[in-house]
Amino acid sequence: MNPIRFGTLLAALVGLTAVLFAVSLAVGPTGTGLRAFVDLAAGRDREMWSLIIWELRLPRALLALIVGASLGLAGASLQGFLRNPLAEPGIIGISSAAALGAVIAIYSGIAMRFPVVLPLLAIAGSLTAVSVLQPLAARGGALTLILAGVAISSLCGALTALALSLSSNPFASLEIVYWMLGSITDRSLADVWLILPFVALGWGLLAATSGQLAALTLGPETAISLGVDLARLQWLVTLGAACCVGAATAVAGVIGFVGLVVPHLLRPLVGFHPSRLLPVSALGGAALLLAADVCVRLLSTESEVRLGVVTALIGVPFFFYLVVRSRSAYGAS
Amino acid sequence: MPPSTSERFGDGAAMDGIARGVDGRVRGRTLAPLCALVATLSYISVADARPERIVSINVCTDQLVAALAPRERIASLSYIAADPRTSAIATEIEGIALNRGTAEEIIALEPDLIVTGQFGMRSTVALLRRIGFTVLELPMAETVADIASNVLHLGAALDQRDKARVIVDALEARLRKLSVADAAERPLFVNYDANGWTTGQTGLLADIVHRAGLATPGDRFGFTESMRLSLEGLLHAEPEIVDLGYPWEDPPALASRLWRHPILRAVIDRAHLVDIPDSAWLCGTPHTLDALATLRAARDEIIGQQQAGSP
C-alpha cells in the first residue's frame, strides 16, 4: 500500500473522529438520530435535554475519545520502543495491572474519600508492569515479551478477583466482568476531569518520543550513534504509556486490542514513520472507541454488551494475523 | 443476593399487571379457604408431630417463622435474617442462633423441621431430605395474596393455625384499607436499585405498586420482568415517585456509583422521593404492606397537589 499524504490522512482521521463524536452525542435510549436529537432539543423540556447532553452523553463521548486516543497512542509507542508489533497494553498485561490498582483504590474505599487515588494507583499498577516487562523485552525476543505479558495478566487478574471476593459488598464479585471487559456507561464529567491531567501528561511524554522512535527503527546501536539517549527514551515511554493506560483503565476498565488494531492499520499509510504513526494512532484509537461505544448502545440487549467485547471481536483476528506473520518473520524456533 | 431479581422478582406468570392489581384482592380472599386446605394436606405430609426445633435457612422463611413460631421453638434462622439491609426482623432476633445454610451445621442443630424457600440451596435441600430430615419449601410470594397463603401454609406446618389466621386477617384488612380499587390515573413509580435495576409488570413489587394505584416502568415501557434502566431512560421517564434501593456504599462497589451521579439528583429533584427499606419487599411478609402504605400516602399527596393545582 502506498503511503498517502500525511496531511490528507490526518485531516481524514480528524473528520472521522468528529463525525463519530457527533454520532455518539446523538445516540441514546431517549432517542437515536438527528431527528430525535432536534426533537429533544425543541421539546417542552429544554432542561432535560441539556441534562442528558451535558451530564450523560458528553461525558461518555469525551471518555471514549480520551480513552481511545490514549490506548492507540500507548500501543503505537510501545510497539515502536519495544520493536515488537504485538506490544499492546492489554496483551502484555499493562492494562490488567492498572485494573488491579484501580480495584484496590475503589473497593478499599480510599477512592471514595480521595478520588485522585484512583488514577494514581492505576498508574502505579501499569508503571510496575511496564518496568517489569522492559528488561525482559530488551534481553529476550518477541515471544519472551508476550509470555511475560501473559504471566502478568494472569497474576493481576487473579489478584483482582481475590480483591473483589474479599469485599463484603455482594455486588463487588459481580464486577469482575467490568474490570476485564470495560465500559463507559453512565459516567459523569467528574470522571473526565479526574483523568484528564494524567492523560495529558502521558500524551505529552509520548509525543516527545516520536523523533527518537524514528531513529530506533534503525536499531539501538544506530540510534545511539544518531544521538538518541536510550535511557531517557525508555523513561519517557515507560512513564507516558503508564499514565495513558493507567488513567484510561481507572475509569473505563480493561479495553483490549485498540492499541494493536489501530497502529497496525495505520502503519502502512504513514510509510512506517513512527513520528507520524503516533498522532494518527491517537486519532484512530479515539475513532475506534467512539464507534465501538456507539455499537454497544445500538445493540440494546438485556444486559449491556461490554466495550471490550466489541474491541476484542475486532482485534483478535488482527492478533492472530500478527502472530502468524511474526512466526514466519522470527522463524519457528 | 444481588441482582436480587431471582429472589425478588422470579418469573411469575405473565399477566396484565394493572388488571391483577384490581382483582387480585378479590382473588386473595376467595382463595384463602382453598389455601388453608392445601396447607392442611401438606402439613399432614410434612410432619406428624408439632415441630419443636425449627430451622429456617432462607431470609424470607426466616421472617415468617419468626412471626408465627414461639421463640423457644426456633432453633436457628439464616444469618441474613440479622442483616437489616435485607431483613425486617434484624433487630428482633437477638439470641437466636444463626446459620449459613450448610448441611453440616443444619444436621448439628438436630431440627425436626427445616423451612426454606423454593429458590437456591437445591443441593443442600436434596441432601437433607436424603438423610431423612423434613424440609418444608415455601413458594416465593409473587403477589400479596401469596403472602397470605404462605402464612397459612406455614402456620399449619408449625401447628400455629390460629396465629396464622390472625396475621392473615390483619393483613387482608390492611390491604383492603390501602388498596386503590379503581385508579383512573396511575402516576409512575420507579424503584431504582443498584446497577439501575427496576420493576417490570410482574412480581411482588409490581403487585404492590399496582395496588397503590401507581404504574411501574414495566407498565409504562412494556417489559414484563425486571430490567436495567439507564440514567438517561430514568430521567426521560419522568417518574413522579422514586424510591432508591440500598446504596451498598460501605464498602463501596461500582454498583453504587450511580447514586452519586448528577442525573440521579436531577431525577430526585423532580420527583417525590420515598424511602422504602429493601427488606419490605425483598420477601413477602406482613411487613410488605408497609411499602404499600408508603406508596399510597405518596400517591394521595401527588393527586391532592394536582387537584389543588388544576382549577
Short description:
The complex is a heterodimer of chains A (333) and B (311). With 333 residues, chain A is an all-alpha fold.
Q: How would you describe the overall organization of this protein?
A:
The complex is a heterodimer of chains A (333) and B (311). Chain A is mainly alpha-helical and 333 residues long. Chain A has one domain: ABC transporter involved in vitamin B12 uptake, BtuC. Chain A has 15 helices and no strands. Chain A has helices spanning 6-26, 34-42, 46-82, 94-107, 110-113, 117-139, 142-166, 176-181, 189-207, 210-216, 220-225, 230-252, 258-266, 274-298, 307-330. In chain A, helix 6 packs antiparallel against helix 7 and helix 13 (258-266) packs across helix 15. Chain A starts with 5 loop residues before the first helix and ends with a helix. Chain B has 311 residues and is of the alpha/beta class. Chain B has two domains: 26-177, Nitrogenase molybdenum iron protein domain (Rossmann fold), CATH 3.40.50; 183-309, Nitrogenase molybdenum iron protein domain (Rossmann fold, 3-Layer(aba) Sandwich). Helix content of chain B is 47%, strand content 11%. Chain B is built from 13 helices and ten strands. Chain B has helices at 5-8, 17-46, 59-68, 103-108, 122-130, 144-157, 161-178, 204-211, 217-221, 231-237, 262-270, 278-282, 288-309; strands at 54-56, 74-78, 98-99, 113-117, 135-138, 189-192, 197-198, 227-228, 241-244, 272-274. Chain B has a five-stranded parallel beta sheet, with helices on both faces. In chain B, strands 6-9-10 form a three-stranded parallel beta sheet, with helices on both faces. In chain B, helix 5 (122-130) links the parallel strand 4 (113-117) and strand 5 (135-138). Chain B is globular and about 65 Å long. The model of chain B is unreliable at 1-33 and 43-47 (pLDDT under 50).
